[in-house]
Amino acid sequence: MFRKLSYAACAFAVGLKNKVDLPDSPLLSDNSVSKLNLQRCLMPRVSAGTGDCQLYVGDRIKRAVGFPQLTACCKPLRYKDFIISYDTKNRIPNWVYEHLQYHKFYKDDPCDRRVNVCPYNEDNQTGQEKPKFHPDCRIHGYHRADVRDYCDTEYELGLMADPANYPFDSEACAETQVMTNVVPIVPGFSCGPWFDLQCYIREKLVRENKSVYVCSGPLFLPSENDGKVQMRFDVLGEGEVSVPSHFFKVIIIETHDGNLELESYMMPNCKPEEGEEVKLDDYLTPLCQIEHASGLIFFPEKKVCFTSNNKRRGARLHAL
């Protein structure tokens, strides 16, 4: 009996204190008082400096000055036939996503009047010059890469969205020359296994399936130096464009029967050795390794279910 009276007295005292602190609020119940005091301990408030308005620290900062953004352009950049997430710190894309379909590559109808306009294809029928590289004005000037950054360096301008993927569309082909689609590559890289992978996607996967989704991007992997594991990479020009150590391609294949299959590859940014036999299967990489190295999660909502991963290659088979 005495214990119950003590509890009641304590609750009444706390209620009176809160009523004094909050004169406009009605007398609170014991449970409400306890919850209110717990919230005060966990989330202290500060005065916003205007009237009686009370704001938490984060809300006050957001209202007064806003939060810094990791990138000046948070949303992906949309182009006609691909989409880019741009890394304003490294001046290169985080990733580039393309959706490739058979009818965009090949003509089965003799009445199809489309003409191959891609200057990068050998069967180009227009003889037009290659489009010039150009900046994307949606990116803040502080964070844009420039062609001049590549001058007097040993690196070339590489393209993540391949212009050869748009043989009949001059607009889409020209858009691949935007600097947000450009990455520094070692001379000869685009003629090695990376080129073979691009041809494999166009000549086999696109031909034999309903459509193909391709996500390409750079990676920065640490290396060992004097017994220490370090993250070291070159930067180019006044824009300080970062040079990736590797590149990845994550390929989602939509078959004609509606199933989805996954193939993921990772390749070092280097020139292949003379006479080296290239096998694409040697570059198949578990998706979890690419996610770990890139900081990306490719299917965060788990909305896709794959019938096959990485060609069912035994130990390389991995769950999402």
Automatic annotation (TrEMBL):
**Domain DNA/RNA non-specific endonuclease/pyrophosphatase/phosphodiesterase, chain residue ranges per copy:** 78-305
The record's listing under Pfam families reads: Endonuclease_NS
Q: Name the GO cellular-component terms.
A: mitochondrial inner membrane; nucleus
What is one GO biological process annotated to this record?
A: apoptotic DNA fragmentation
Where does the record place the ENPP1-3/EXOG-like endonuclease/phosphodiesterase domain?
Answer: 79-305
Q: Where is the signal peptide?
A: none
This entry's Gene Ontology molecular function terms read: metal ion binding; nucleic acid binding; RNA endonuclease activity; single-stranded DNA endodeoxyribonuclease activity
Similarity comment: Belongs to the DNA/RNA non-specific endonuclease family.
Mind telling me what this protein is named?
A: Endonuclease G, mitochondrial-like
Gene field: LOC106050551
